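Hi support team,

I submitted a single chain yesterday and got back a structure, but I'm not sure I'm reading the token output correctly. Could someone confirm the output below corresponds to the sequence I sent? I've pasted both exactly as they appear in my results page.

Thanks,
R.
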Amino acid sequence: MNKAVVLATVRSEIEEAKQYGEAYNWIFSEIDEDKQSFTVLLQSPIGTPVGSETQIREKFLVEFVFDGYPAQPYLINFIDPAANDRGKRTCIPHCDDSFFNQGRLVICHQCNRGAYVQGLHPDWDLSAWRSLAGGLTDLKWILEVIFSRISDPTKYHGRFK
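Hi R., thanks for writing in. Yes, this is the structure output for that exact sequence:
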């Protein structure tokens, strides 16, 4: 797909997501055109215990790599915003469902190219990702689902340790 078309599509999705996420204080980076990526910083509204009295509202930095988008889904990664670590358990939210795959440290959903790359579901067809992903086919709704999980006290347990 034409790089200019991809960039225009991503910029449009970012603007829509910024408007939607304004109430939640989502913070968007600038687009890195060379790496074809950007990040979004999300903060859980739920405090999790750190010590005997201290509560911390964890921040999660979500990276979106958009090479090949929208023919292929975003490649979604978590980066620990404090340590700038990648690929560690401490980077992803700890929730009581399979959306955040704690074994592979990836979003296990058709909206994430990482789930295909890691071979979590060999029966998923990457070329049909839009029909498989249900409503999670653009940035705003992907972020909303991530944020809803880190905002749900019945599912969310802070950061993986």
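A quick pointer for reading it: The radius of gyration is 16 Å. Let us know if anything else looks off.

Best,
Support desk
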